[in-house]
Design goal:
By secondary structure, this protein is of the alpha/beta class. The protein is 40% helix and 18% strand. The chain folds into 2 domains: 3-164, 7,8-Dihydro-6-hydroxymethylpterin-pyrophosphokinase HPPK (Alpha-Beta Plaits, 2-Layer Sandwich); 167-363, P-loop containing nucleotide triphosphate hydrolases (Rossmann fold, 3-Layer(aba) Sandwich).
Length: 365
């Protein structure tokens, strides 16, 4: 049975953000799915003289009992450099992980006390906790986290930082990112999120403007050439831009060749292939590319979910052919880094750690 718990995180030694992110990644690897992450907060050391902390809270979905959750959290702290002291005096640490709530459970033992007994006394816990649990009612105090925050007498200095502080500097070295993938892979959702978080220019495939697409799905042989020519002309126009600011696109120009080779035959394909270099000579090449590799069952589920009528009859075999064609094209040498990432089961909108981990992979390209 799955339960939701809330965990507070803090670090004031070394690379504080990296410490916290490493902690979150290990929590997700060992305990369950992180559903929400608060913004980071910079906070003066509480109860002792020391460097400022970065604090945060997260909401975790787990099947592990609270005693195991606490043991795992303590193990992660130790792995990431925390040295515990027998003294009750507060001190600096690379990583501090506190289990605040485990559902509404109330536990009092020498090893574990739930809810955490000092939540209501600490702004550095309450401020990030309100981000992810403003309406959560304390099981013993009967007050929401928002009410506890508003009534908290703690006067420690807490500075709210932007959520984007969790994200790597994705466009430090490169200005143009392409997100490629099969139909229903989540390209557009990811691009929307990146564009919003980084303030960069999004470029979206203009599916709705192609008048031939619905006819293609009902009669592919009759309308394939018109469909592919429209897409090629549209894509080439969209990608004729100056990359002096950051851009992110939900399509790769080469998909025109991938889909045309699948959908056209004989002289139509030969003519299309010959016209490709001329039509695309002014196109800006990406600085880096990520391909979202998702199983056909998930592609179909996403296609059904978004509900475009003309896509509902797409076959598994067609999607498999597209995936194989993309991967074959990506095996060739390209003048930019390429990363193929298995995104099975990942929802970048609802699953923040998936999103953060993916971006950290891309930032390393």
């Amino acid at each position: 049975m799955e339960s939701h718990c809330y965990i507070a995180l803090g670090s004031n030694l070394g690379d504080r953000f990296t410490n916290l992110l490493q902690g979150m990644m290990r929590i997700e690897e060992r305990l369950g799915r992180i559903l929400q992450i608060s913004r980071p907060y910079e906070t003066a050391a509480w109860g002792f003289e020391g460097p400022a902390f970065i604090n945060a809270c997260l909401r975790l979905e787990t099947t592990q009992p609270p005693q195991i959750v606490l043991k795992v959290l303590q193990a992660i702290e130790k792995e990431l450099g925390r040295k515990r002291s027998a003294s009750s005096v507060y001190h600096s640490r690379t990583l501090d992980l506190d289990l605040l709530f485990y559902g509404t459970q109330q536990i009092q033992t020498d090893f574990l006390e739930l809810p955490h007994p000092r939540i209501q006394l600490r702004r550095f816990v309450l401020d990030p906790l309100v981000d992810v649990a403003a309406k959560w009612v304390h099981p013993t105090l009967g007050e929401t986290m928002l009410c506890l925050q508003q009534n908290c007498e703690d006067r420690v200095t807490v500075q709210q930082l932007a959520y984007q502080k969790w994200l790597p500097d994705l466009f430090e070295k490169n200005k143009y990112l392409v997100v490629a993938g099969n139909i229903g892979s989540g390209k557009t959702s990811l691009v929307k999120k990146i564009a919003s978080d980084y303030g960069c220019m999004p470029i979206y495939e203009q599916f709705d403007e192609n008048p031939h697409l619905p006819q293609f799905y009902s009669d592919p042989s009759a309308f394939a050439l018109d469909t592919e020519n429209f897409f090629l002309d549209s894509r080439a126009t969209q990608l004729d831009f100056s990359a002096n600011q950051a851009h992110v696109s939900d399509f790769w120009l080469e998909k025109s060749l991938i889909f045309a080779q699948i959908n056209l035959a004989g002289k139509e394909w030969e003519a299309f292939e010959r016209s490709f270099p001329t039509k695309t000579k002014n196109v800006t090449q990406p600085d880096f590319l990520v391909y979202l590799d998702r199983p056909v069952s998930e592609l179909q589920a996403n296609i059904q979910k978004r509900g475009r009528p003309y896509e509902q009859s797409i076959s598994d075999d067609y999607l498999k052919t597209i995936s194989e064609s993309y991967k074959e094209k990506l095996r060739h040498e390209h003048p930019f880094p390429v990363q193929i990432i298995d995104v099975s089961g990942m929802d970048f909108v609802a699953h923040p750690m998936c999103y953060i981990v993916l971006l950290r992979q891309l930032a390393s390209l």
